[in-house]
Amino acid sequence: MSNKMSRPKPPPPGTEEASANLNLGEFQNVDTLTLSEAALVLNALVAKRRNDRKNVNETEMLNQTLNYLDHFARFTQKENVEAVERLLSSHKDLAKFERAQLGSLCCENADEAKTLIPSLQDKIKDEDLQDLLDEISKLQNR
């Protein structure tokens, strides 16, 4: 006998996938950051802690993460990071995950974007996606 008041059992961890259908489990509607946004946040936090002379607790993992973000962040100027975020946020038809992926991968064309982010396939026309990618590219650090 089923209890109508019970919550559905969450899916087992490890079943998440970002394929043609996004199945992100508990992360489905969580706010996401591009690599550039994550770099800004972490670098600002570390700088503030150093400035306040607080224990920064710079672990090897933190240093590796900062190195990774510094290497792969496509936008380093705060104004450009914010402009890309505003541009991506205006596309409410796209999932937060998809928007973050577009802002991190900086694909050259719609075909590449839809190959790397298959869930975009039926969500946005190639022309509209190309326009978005072109706008993102204008903000990219050269």
TrEMBL record:
<dbReference type="InterPro" id="IPR005574">
    <property type="entry name" value="Rpb4/RPC9"/>
</dbReference>
<dbReference type="GO" id="GO:0005634">
    <property type="term" value="C:nucleus"/>
</dbReference>
<protein>
    <recommendedName>
        <fullName>RNA polymerase Rpb4/RPC9 core domain-containing protein</fullName>
    </recommendedName>
</protein>
<feature type="domain" description="RNA polymerase Rpb4/RPC9 core">
    <location>
        <begin position="25"/>
        <end position="140"/>
    </location>
</feature>
<comment type="similarity">
    <text>Belongs to the eukaryotic RPB4 RNA polymerase subunit family.</text>
</comment>
<dbReference type="InterPro" id="IPR038324">
    <property type="entry name" value="Rpb4/RPC9_sf"/>
</dbReference>
<dbReference type="GO" id="GO:0030880">
    <property type="term" value="C:RNA polymerase complex"/>
</dbReference>
<keyword id="KW-0539">Nucleus</keyword>
<dbReference type="InterPro" id="IPR010997">
    <property type="entry name" value="HRDC-like_sf"/>
</dbReference>
<dbReference type="GO" id="GO:0000166">
    <property type="term" value="F:nucleotide binding"/>
</dbReference>
<dbReference type="InterPro" id="IPR006590">
    <property type="entry name" value="RNA_pol_Rpb4/RPC9_core"/>
</dbReference>
<feature type="region of interest" description="Disordered">
    <location>
        <begin position="1"/>
        <end position="20"/>
    </location>
</feature>
<dbReference type="Pfam" id="PF03874">
    <property type="entry name" value="RNA_pol_Rpb4"/>
</dbReference>
<dbReference type="GO" id="GO:0006352">
    <property type="term" value="P:DNA-templated transcription initiation"/>
</dbReference>
<dbReference type="InterPro" id="IPR045222">
    <property type="entry name" value="Rpb4-like"/>
</dbReference>
